[in-house]
# Entry
Amino acid sequence: NIAKLETAVPIIEQLNAHGHSAYIVGGAVRNYLLDIPINDVDITTSATPDEIEAVFERTVPVGKEHGTIMVLDTGEPFEVTTYRIDGTYEDFRRPDEVIFVTELKDDLLRRDFTINAMALDSALHVVDYADGQHDLNHRLIRAVGNPYDRFHEDALRMIRACRFQSTLDFRLEDETARAMKTHAQLISHVAIERIIVEFRKLLQGLNPEAALMTVEAAGIHAAIPVLQQLEPLMKPRHAVTLEAYFGYCLYKGQFVERGLAQLKLSNQEKKAIKASCEIYRELDAGAAMLLVYKYGAALVINCLDMRAALGIPAVLTAAAVRQLHSALPIEDRSEMAVDGHLLMTHLGRKGGSWLKGLLGRVEEHIVLGRLPNNKEAILKWVDDNV
Ligand code: ATP
Ligand code: MG
# Structure
């Protein structure tokens, strides 16, 4: 961790050398103090975006209008952002504009939770205006300032509070929890894409169960149009993937495909959710070998994890799934010893829906080990069975 933070120190020193103050902020500070892995190291500075660009050789203006310049001088990318406060909030969402300021303190105090509102200088000394260290020691998520105001400004912060409850396995401070109950409805104004980012992290955290109990108790998911259909809200007891989670909801009939579309996920994510739904169905039916062949070991294992997290007795272990996968006679249709052409010539028939059906049956027999994957054996089976 220290090594990771120290890679940011030359950037801070270079800003300092040009007369600008600069600090490491946000999640990196929090995780450093907790001694848990750091994701990315963000830097905040008194320098304006133009000044940041003037100090460094290699920069990319990734979010210049809200103050963020990516600096590549040391080889790895760092986001350097000008001290800022948020402009007026419209509609309980992100502000339409940001205002650059000169004091670190103002930048820290506009942040969401006390544990996220600390900074480190180039000597890795902590700057803490919101008693973040106290809350870190007491494992508390507490809004900076008045929680009612903070959730009213940006309703996403409520789901972020739950996300940190899960990822850190912390508790919500009482007033912060009360404010969440008061303002839960406001989450309906937040774009689903922003919610999903936090929801995914919540599911992958240490304690999704506790966080989802908070979500439910506060009435947050009931206020999110796409998620209100999740009744009862599944509460996995340990980390699961978003795809395995929503696949389970789909399997349980909480979602229909149209609901899935409203989550605005990528095609790949939607595909994995639908595949997961099939996996739950077929796990009940029992043909594990075919499942592993069709969907791959990773998705099947994620679904088994989800079931385990809901307390459903295991039908298969992850080790068994990997074993099944390595025992597959073929991994893909392209490895079959016959193809459509060969079958058409052999049978002297033109292509059609029969061919697809026949290929599917042959494929299944090969995967299940009922038929060896060689041409003569397959053609003999075809002669006997068509
Ligand atoms: P992670 O390690 O999971 O990335 P993080 O704390 O870095 O956690 P980010 O979402 O990357 O979380 O946000 C970076 C920092 O920006 C936060 O630590 C917090 O200080 C601030 N922040 C992010 N979103 C908000 C928000 N909606 N309102 C106020 N401050 C926010
Ligand atoms: Mg981060």
Summary: The two ends are 64 Å apart (CA to CA). The domain at 140-239 is CATH 1.10.110.30 (Hydrophobic Seed Protein). The chain has 19 helices and eleven strands.
